Amino acid sequence: MNIQIHTRNFKIPASLRDQIEAKISTFGKYFKNLIGIHVDIVRDTHHKKGEVFRVECNVHIPRKIIRGIKTGETLLLALGAVEKILKAKVSEENKKRRDKKRLPDCPKR
């Protein structure tokens, strides 16, 4: 599984990068054929709010991309919110694929 982490307007320390990879790599247990995960982290200054972190995460599986975007006051809050969104979307997609396999064949007439 390929995990790419890109940042804009700041540098991530190695310890925080390991923490991000540990949270994001849990999606590998949902799909055997996971292609890769792309994470974009942006630090912006929001009007009258101070610094705001935006995390965008794309999970690439065959024939589909599952995307989650969230902003937060700290990087870990935004990352936790994106992780929660993606887990719901990934498990829903996994359930759809399982149910599709379980459908019985139509009888021939």
| CATH architecture grouping | 2-Layer Sandwich
Distance between the termini: 45 Å
The largest sheet has its strands arranged as 1-2-3-4
Estimate the mean pLDDT confidence: 85
User: Over the alpha carbons, how many angstroms does the gyration radius reach?
Assistant: 17 Å
Secondary-structure element series: EHEEEH
CATH superfamily: Ribosome hibernation promotion factor-like
CATH topology: Double Stranded RNA Binding Domain
CATH C-level class is Alpha Beta
Estimate what percentage of residues fall within beta strands. Answer: 35-45%
Can you describe what's shown?
β1 (2-8), α1 and β2 form a beta-alpha-beta unit. The mean pLDDT is 85. The protein has 109 residues and is an alpha+beta fold. It is built from two helices and four strands, in the order βαβββα. The protein has helices at residues 14-24, 75-102; strands spanning 2-8, 36-46, 50-61, 64-72. The protein has one domain: Double Stranded RNA Binding Domain, CATH 3.30.160. The protein has a four-stranded mixed β-sheet, with helices on one face. The longest helix has 28 residues, at 75-102.
